[in-house]
Amino acid sequence: MRVTRYPAMAVTGLALAVYVNFFTHHVLPDARWVIAVLLLIALRRTWVHYTVGGARLRMPLALAFVLIGFFLWVAENIATFLGAWTYPDQQHVWTFVHAGKFGSWSLLVTLSFVLVASVKATEGRLYGDRPRPSVTTRSD
């Protein structure tokens, strides 16, 4: 997997806003939709390149985040339907998980991506230039 035209500073700042909003939306106005629109704008030219079989494909990174969020929301609905847990509005009868969770999952995926991308970008500096010891295995 390779990501091209990734605006690291802008997306990192917006991911920080996502994180802060998760905690402050109980006492301040919920800004998740504003942040989501800003993320779509920031990622409008960013592509993720991947291989399926022998074919090299690409899709907009923002679309990947939305798709991952959607499928997590679907999995959450399946889990609540099967009784893995229930939300308060599902105590007496099962209902779909609120659609707002779909957006929350997409934003959480964005935050997770930024954390991993930040670590990967500094990986060589974090661990130094020393070569890692090789691991040998014996098959006797």
Topology (elements, then pairings):
Layout: E1 2-4, H1 8-24, H2 32-42, E2 47-52, E3 55-60, H3 61-81, H4 100-121, H5 123-127
Antiparallel strand pairs: 1-2, 2-3
What does this protein look like?
There is one protein chain. With about 140 residues, this protein is mainly alpha-helical. It has one domain. It has 5 helices and 3 strands, in the order βααββααα. Helix 1 (about 10-25) crosses helix 4 and helix 3 packs across helix 4 (about 100-120).
User: Which range best describes the helical content: under 10%, 10-25%, 25-40%, 40-55%, 55-70% or over 70%?
Assistant: 40-55%
User: What about the largest sheet?
Assistant: 3 strands, antiparallel
Q: Give the distance, in angstroms, between the N- and C-terminal Cα atoms.
A: 36 Å
Number of helices, counting only DSSP H or I runs of 4 residues or more? 5
Strand content: 5-15%
Radius of gyration: 19 Å
Classification by helices and strands: mainly alpha
Shape: globular
The domain count comes to 1
Largest sheet: spatial strand order: 1-2-3
Stretches where pLDDT is under 50 for at least 5 consecutive residues are none
Average pLDDT taken over every residue: 88
Query: What does the oligomeric state look like here?
Result: single chain
Number of beta strands: 3
Q: Give helix and strand order, one letter per element, not per position.
A: EHHEEHHH
Please sum up the structure shown:
With about 140 residues, the chain is mainly α. It has five helices and three strands; from the N terminus they run βααββααα.
